[in-house]
Design a protein that fits this description.
With 870 residues, the protein is α/β, with parallel strands linked by helices. Among the domains are: 264-403, no CATH class; 578-650, no CATH class; 813-869, Roll (Ubiquitin-like (UB roll)), CATH 3.10.20.590. It has 26 helices and 39 strands. Strands 28, 29, 30, 33, 34 and 35 form a six-stranded mixed beta sheet that branches. Strands 17-14-16-15-18 form a five-stranded mixed beta sheet, with helices on one face. A four-stranded parallel beta sheet has the order 2-1-26-27, with helices on one face. A hairpin with a 2-residue loop joins strand 36 (813-819) and strand 37 (822-829). The two termini are 59 Å apart. The protein binds one RNA strand of 89 nucleotides through helix 9, strand 12, strand 13, strand 17 and strand 35.
RNA sequence: GCGGAUGUGGUGAAAUAGGUAAACACGCUAGACUUAGGAUCUAGUUCUAUAAUAUAGAAUUAAGGGUUCAAAUCCCUUCAUCCGCACCA
């Protein structure tokens, strides 16, 4: 029988449409909530990295269902954020149109994986019924403060009551009241230095920046002072730290959470520029003397410093900084009269020194400035004695202090495509939109982009963005009038983490319009039992989600659990080779990879697709030109062959090394594709994409089909003991690997068992049935087909996972006999004779390898080993 | 610079919380078969010796040392690779 997967898949896809998988154990008391991080629907569609996660969760979901669990395996889409918006600007189409199209594509592809998702639970962050609750949580945060004594968040009204008792609260002006409240609110406004990207026109979080440039687009980032919404996540530092003890997460993820929170006792130094401008504090484990201070030219501290340099020298410094910014690793020395403890003068350097990846604002003479001091390019400003920055001084405190790394989360973005922050301002004092008027809908305007193409894509350009607080609705900007009680609305939107902070809660009760989640449902489903996700933004996402939950628990939205994700497994990235060629800048010349050394500075790297490559890394020039006609007149510089640069890299759209699952599925079928993705290696480790090994899976499937080829050969008889033992072994192995989440090992045991079945010609129906049930989560369609051929009408997924046979067998015990720590042979012994004397005698009878020799020692470990030392 | 991992054949990898290293699969070599297919089957695939389809011996889990009857697994040092990092560590 040839494996006609297309026919089988088509048949079962139709049957599965009517099949209510998630209803099977609806009334079971045991629940299992498994969750994949929801995808960002980019226009490019699914790639291999996505599918492996879905397949993985699906297998576990099907297995758990077979173990009588009521399972939940939902999926949704995280659709707000920069990528869609950037794409929208480029294509002049509205982001919601792009997102809708992408989601359609995603859904189609996901459904083609043989995966069961609870599609009725689907959520989408841009859905107004979803972001209504995101905004609701924000207002709750805005109206809460953290009570240190009670160690939880409470309503801001209670804080006002406390103030009323203590002070003359009512005599204070509104602005003063606001100032005080703003210091306590969990969502609050603060002027702070932010990563500003002028090209994108927005603030970015630290994890949105890579190598000092924006992750999306690679634009320059500067530090800028701006009024921003913050979440007071720092108040929860201790809770976030303690919660880690109880959950089953990988060590490295836990560690980086601990590091991020960074609780420790330290000595500290304060750097002030003058009374008004404080900078951050610097901490040391031990007391240290300060010999020099290094200030980065890209930092905000430098900008401040410039303000306080005397006018005469200001231009000089700025000019020099301009010059050195174009060079690598330069430093300028400014001599000062600040004296440290050893009565030595402290020098200030201004430098464009970069330490590996991160831009640091300031370096002190700690270990990491060693490299800095090696810099040879050095300028010294000729500075007169009286020139130094008077107001720049240091504090060194002797006392130890408990400090945290964690900073409050900056929670606003100056962009259009996000959840609007439900706040309006009266005389610059923020007030929230009433709860019952949520959602504050994101305005949709046609032709928006073409009309305002030259503007930044921002909310305040909408003509309709003001709040009428009498009629409680959104009105046009031009009506803003304090007398008529029409006020300006907040123009920033929330960052993309806002929607993903709490989404796992919403899946459980996604259609509830009155509450985020009903009590009953929360009590039953509780938290996520197994959370599966990629490694990209894991750390931030997990921390913010945990913070969000702890807050929701304080305000009693959540009552029955403390941590969002009980167990977490990190999905390893899949690497693939990328190919690139080099072009001379501004010239029509390509240069072979072995010749580029000469042109080092003048070349530009262009990624190309793999289909243009022959013989490992040679470019097929004719084919390349045929497909890329804009390079028609270009010259190819080469010796003999034109070589490309081949590199193993993370799959990415820009590097043209993405593998799309569709082609593979078309060629080999869904089941083979599923098995292959799991078999490729441990789920949590990085993998290199290589299709070679898919043959093994194909052969395995063929062998499997061979067994079930002739229905007549399959015997309905009580299975033999031997056969039962074989089945027991595989069941045990597979179950154990489910616990450890090592599914790839299970597949190798399936292969092994099939080999044994063929060798021993096992054709017993009961044995084979149990085997195929055990196997069904891995390859659903083929299992269903075989199940049907065995004469069953129900879906195989209605069946329970097999139990281990109770066999009473006089098990012979295996002993490994070792001589001087080396294995000699293995003997089998009946249970009755399981003792040292018997075994030694037996060996003496059969072997004479230690005859006439003195035995130093015999080590006997019951049921395992006998080691003889001579 | 700091922190966290990881290191097993030509390749992907297994090895019960110290107890037969390399299961399972890919690749390769040789042969068979045929409906000439990205097909299937059989055997081999660390090294050495011999009386050679067997037997015996030796080496081996990045390198070196330690603990132990016994280490891929535990401890120490070094090297290499990867990941994270915001001022500190």
């Amino acid at each position: 029988m040839k494996y006609n997967f297309k026919k089988i898949e088509k048949k079962w896809k139709i049957k599965h449409k009517k099949f209510n998988f998630f209803e099977i154990n609806k009334n079971s008391k045991k629940k299992f909530y498994i969750l994949n991080m929801f995808p960002y629907p980019s226009g490019y569609g699914l790639h291999i990295g996505h599918t492996i996660g879905y397949i993985f969760s699906d297998i576990i979901c099907k297995y758990k269902s077979g173990c009588n669990y009521n399972v939940l395996n939902p999926i949704g889409f995280d659709s707000f954020g920069l990528p869609a918006e950037q794409y929208a600007i480029n294509t002049t189409k509205h982001p919601s149109y792009i997102i809708k199209k992408s989601i359609k594509k995603y859904k189609k592809q996901i459904k083609n994986l043989g995966v069961f998702f609870n599609w009725d639970k689907e959520i989408n962050t841009i859905d107004k019924n979803y972001y209504k609750w995101t905004q609701w949580i924000f207002i709750k945060l805005f109206n809460s403060w953290y009570d240190k004594k009670k160690k939880k968040a409470r309503n801001i009204k209670k804080l006002i009551n406390i103030y009323k008792k203590k002070k003359k609260w009512n005599c204070l002006k509104k602005k003063e009241k606001n100032k005080i409240l703003n210091k306590h609110r969990l969502a609050y406004l603060k002027n702070s230095f932010v990563n500003w990207c002028s090209k994108l026109g927005t603030v970015l979080a630290n994890d949105e920046i890579k190598n000092g440039k924006s992750e999306r687009g690679g634009h320059k980032i500067t530090k800028k002072k701006m009024l921003q919404w913050h979440l007071r996540i720092t108040k929860y530092s201790d809770k976030l730290l303690n919660g880690l003890k109880k959950i089953n997460w990988p060590k490295n993820i836990k560690n980086s959470q601990i590091k991020w929170i960074g609780k420790r006792k330290c000595f500290y130094i304060n750097i002030k520029i003058n009374k008004k401008y404080k900078t951050k504090i610097f901490y040391f484990k031990k007391k240290k003397n300060i010999n020099n201070i290094i200030i980065n030219t890209n930092s905000y501290i430098y900008e401040l410093l410039i303000k306080f340099i005397k006018k005469k020298y200001k231009k000089k410094v700025i000019n020099i900084v301009k010059k050195i910014n174009n060079n690598k690793n330069y430093k300028i020395l400014i001599k000062t009269n600040i004296i440290n403890k050893n009565k030595k003068k402290i020098n200030i350097y201004i430098s464009n020194y970069k330490n590996n990846k991160s831009i640091k604002n300031i370096y002190l003479n700690v270990k990491n400035s060693k490299n800095f001091l090696k810099i040879k390019n050095k300028l010294t400003l000729s500075i007169k004695k009286n020139f130094y920055i008077k107001s720049f001084f240091l504090y060194f405190k002797k006392k130890k202090k408990i400090i945290y790394n964690l900073n409050d989360l900056i929670f606003s973005r100056q962009r259009y495509w996000g959840e609007p922050i439900p706040i309006y301002y009266i005389y610059n004092i923020p007030y929230n939109i009433p709860y019952n008027k949520l959602p504050l809908k994101l305005p949709y305007i046609n032709k928006y982009i073409s009309k305002y193409k030259n503007y930044k894509f921002k909310l305040n350009f909408y003509y309709k963005w003001a709040w009428d607080s009498i009629n409680k609705k959104i009105v046009e900007n031009k009506f803003i009038d304090i007398k008529k009680k029409i006020y300006p609305l907040e123009t920033s939107t929330m960052p993309s983490c806002a929607g993903s902070n709490w989404y796992y809660i919403r899946y459980i009760d996604n259609n509830n319009n009155n509450k985020i989640i009903s009590n009953n449902k929360e009590k039953y489903w509780k938290n996520v039992d197994l959370y599966i996700g990629g490694s990209e933004h894991t750390n931030g996402h997990l921390l913010y989600s945990r913070f969000c939950l702890k807050f929701l628990k304080d305000i009693k939205v959540i009552n029955y659990y403390n941590e969002p994700f009980k167990r977490f497994i990190n999905q390893g990235i899949i690497l693939n080779y990328s190919f690139s060629i080099f072009k001379l800048i501004k010239k029509k010349k390509f240069i072979s990879y072995d010749l580029i050394k000469k042109y080092k500075k003048k070349i530009q790297k262009i990624y190309i697709e793999k289909k243009f490559i022959i013989n490992n890394n040679e470019l097929n020039i004719n084919f390349f030109l045929f497909k890329n006609k804009n390079y028609k007149n270009f010259i190819f510089y080469k010796k003999k062959k034109f070589l490309c640069y081949k590199k193993l890299e993370k799959m990415s759209k820009s590097k043209l090394n993405i593998i799309k699952p569709n082609k593979i599925i078309d060629k080999f079928g869904i089941d083979v594709f599923r098995l292959y993705q799991i078999f490729i290696g441990p789920f949590n480790k990085k993998k290199i994409w290589n299709l070679d090994k898919i043959k093994g899976i194909k052969r395995f499937i063929n062998k499997l089909l061979l067994i079930f080829k002739n229905n007549k050969e399959i015997i309905k008889k009580k299975p033999k003991k031997e056969d039962k033992i074989i089945l027991n072994n595989i069941i045990k192995k597979v179950y154990k690997n489910y616990k450890k989440l090592l599914l790839h090992i299970s597949i190798s045991y399936f292969m092994k068992t099939i080999n044994i079945f063929i060798k021993k010609k096992i054709k017993n129906k009961y044995i084979l049935e149990k085997f195929i049930i055990l196997f069904s989560p891995f390859a659903p369609y083929i299992s269903e087909e075989i199940w049907e051929k065995l004469g069953h009408k129900n879906s195989i997924f209605m069946e329970k996972q097999p139990k281990i046979y109770n066999i009473y067998y006089k098990k012979k015990i295996k002993y490994i006999i070792m001589l001087n720590n080396k294995k000699k042979f293995v003997i089998k012994i009946n249970k009755v004779n399981n003792n040292k004397k018997y075994i030694i005698n037996k060996i003496k009878c059969n072997n004479n390898f230690f005859y006439k020799k003195k035995i130093k020692k015999i080590i006997f470990i019951k049921n395992k080993i006998l080691n003889i030392l001579i």
